[in-house]
Amino acid sequence: xxxxxxxxxxxxxxxxxxxxxxxxxxxxxxxxxxxxxxxxxxxxxxxxxxxxxxxxxxxxxxxxxxxxxxxxxxxxxxxxxxxxxxxxxxxxxxxxxxxxxxxxxxxxxxxxxxxxxxxxxxxxxxxxxxxxxxxxxxxxxxxxxxxxxxxxxxxxxxxxxxxxxxxxxxxxxxxxxxxxxxxxxxxxxxxxxxxxxxxxxxxxxxxxxxxxxxxxxxxxxxxxxxxxxxxxxxxxxxxxxxxxxxxxxxxxxxxxxxxxxxxxxxxxxxxxxxxxxxxxxxxxxxxxxxxxxxxxxxxxxxxxxxxxxxxxxxxxxxxxxxxxxxxxxxxxxxxxxxxxxxxxxxxxxxxxxxxxxxxxxxxxxxxxxxxxxxxxxxxxxxxxxxxxxxxxxxxxxxxxxxxxxxxxxxxxxxxxxxxxxxxxxxxxxxxxxxxxxxxxxxxxxxxxxxxxxxxxxxxxxxxxxxxxxxxxxxxxxxxxxxxxxxxxxxxxxxxxxxxxxxxxxxxxxxxxxxxxxxxxxxxx
Length: 524
Known about the structure:
This protein has helices at 9-16, 22-29, 33-39, 45-59, 73-83, 90-94, 97-110, 118-132, 138-152, 159-182, 187-195, 208-213, 221-237, 241-244, 249-260, 264-268, 272-319, 321-344, 348-355, 358-375, 379-383, 387-390, 394-400, 411-425, 441-447, 455-471, 503-507, 517-523; strands at 199-200, 206-207, 403-405, 475-477. The protein is mainly alpha-helical. The protein starts with 8 loop residues before the first helix and ends with a helix. It holds the Pfam family DUF4158.
């Protein structure tokens, strides 16, 4: 069975490779006066060149020259040029392994380096686990360990050694994430999570997890109720945002991604600790995604409601064109009769009665009223015609969310609380003075035209404005991703200026028993 690796060949080359570009070599391998004095203390040209090459390699990438290793020709040429010796002299140096070992010991003392030992293995494990707390990728894990070793003045061991430590560190971080997510859960809660994987006769043999994942998308009352059913179910599991926040967000996202590609049957076969963690991550993600999907569908449906109302008004106006044309012709005959009567000195009413007829004018009044209403329609009245359809889901929708605003004493939130209270109590009529400061003046005039405010118009108006305020982020909802508070998008204050590895923390020898999340959680 092939040995597991943490790094790809390209990643290994980036982390441990010796640069061959001249600009990059100049960055790492230019010898200063002290270096040259140390090198020139060697007697032979081969020893001076070999000694200088080892000095460069111990500085970067941090490991000396191994037995039988031969650095790249560009590096040898670059160092030889600084010493004024021929690059071919390195062949004599490479033939004597004892000289190489003696030079390594001398260079470690001169550069204040020490060999890699057990305490450094433990330190790398701790640092690697902290890096793995946020990622499964091998490169950042090994890069963190390399930074730690260079800061501590330790000769870097071979890439295979650090990869093995990195694999152990990643496994430790994963196990800790599993423990953190399941910490404090009882057997009943675990059983509830596992029950999602069992086929349910009420769902025609589908598992509850498959049902939760299968969310409807087309906006409509039935689909809104289907989303609310799923949201109520996943909230009933009891996996809140606080439990999911126990691990690094990137680690949580990785678990969510991992669980998302597994079927219920596959998850059922996973070992218990990992399965519980995956189900917790999936439940926390579903709770957020279903809330976002419900709010998005509400916005789409409410927007479509007013769009369709506008279209209905347009169609009504178009349908009345023939009656409007006939009425205009009747007006023209009436005006002509009045003008002729005035010119002849005749009484106007008699002339209109003779030429047009007062009965025909009276019949035109309803047509005029209808045409005037279609020409200047009030969209709120037309939208409220669908109030009975809205009521199929709005009580549950409003009760499912806690809407918040940065505006002190926001009247819209007061209106939403009023509607929730009316739905809970089964009361139909609005109070005499419901919150209305957020309503446009034209809508207020329509709603309060009678002694008792019109509940249909008021509730439709509240929902329309709620939709607009959600879209503009003036109103936000806790526990969502798309409609969260603006402050949630900002970097936490404790994260500003935090570096990935502090010198003081790096110099302390980490404990092998302390979990990697002890101080990586606060800095993550």
